[in-house]
Amino acid sequence: MSGWLAGKRARIEGDSPAIIAAFQAAGATLVSDGDHDIWVHIAPPPATKLAQDLTHAEWRASLDVGLDRRFLGAKDFAEACRARGQGGAVLFIGAPEQALGADHAAAAGALGNLTKTLGVEWARDGIRVNSILTRETGDTLGKLAAYLASDYAAYVTGAVMGITLDD
Asked: How far apart (Å, rounded) are the C-alpha atoms in residues 51 and 78?
């Protein structure tokens, strides 16, 4: 995997030691702000509640974290890419649609459709948008994320992928 992301600057929002390790092993420079070629958003592990126990505020909070913040972050990233006249890669990481309850299912389902739509709309600007929906946290997740952010996946956009647990 060495060199896949050499010369790339990646901003990773959220916690995933496997993705961080894979990006570093692939040669990416991790940044916390400033210009970057890759933006990864990792959803925090949510609390699980049955639909009938959710308050409206909890429902909205799940959609805010699982969808709204991701869209707004991706939009800001895409605007910065366009201003620089360069493409980039957006990668959303989160739980599968059916995994964690009605609020998370709604956010993940909408995120899948958002990924496909942005993948088509932003392709003309050289900005790829993909999602990995999984509860996996290990090596497989890190390697798939590094691949999707790399130039080896230059023609992959609008993809919503899932992986099973491996560790």
From this structure: 34
Do 118 and 68 contact (CB within 8 A), yes or no? no
Q: Which residue has the tokens 């942005």?
A: 118
One pLDDT digit (tens) per residue for the chain, 167 residues: 568 899 999 999 999 999 999 999 999 999 999 999 999 999 877 678 889 999 999 999 988 988 999 999 999 999 999 999 999 999 999 877 656 688 888 888 899 999 999 999 999 999 999 999 888 888 999 999 999 999 999 999 999 998 876 55
At 142 the three-state DSSP class reads helix
CA-CA distance, 136 to 162, in Å (whole number)? 9
What is the Cα 53 distance to its own chain's centre?
Answer: 28
Phi, psi of 30 (to 5 degrees): -85, 130
> What are the helix and strand counts (H, E) for the chain?
5, 6
**Token pair listed for 63:** 């959609």
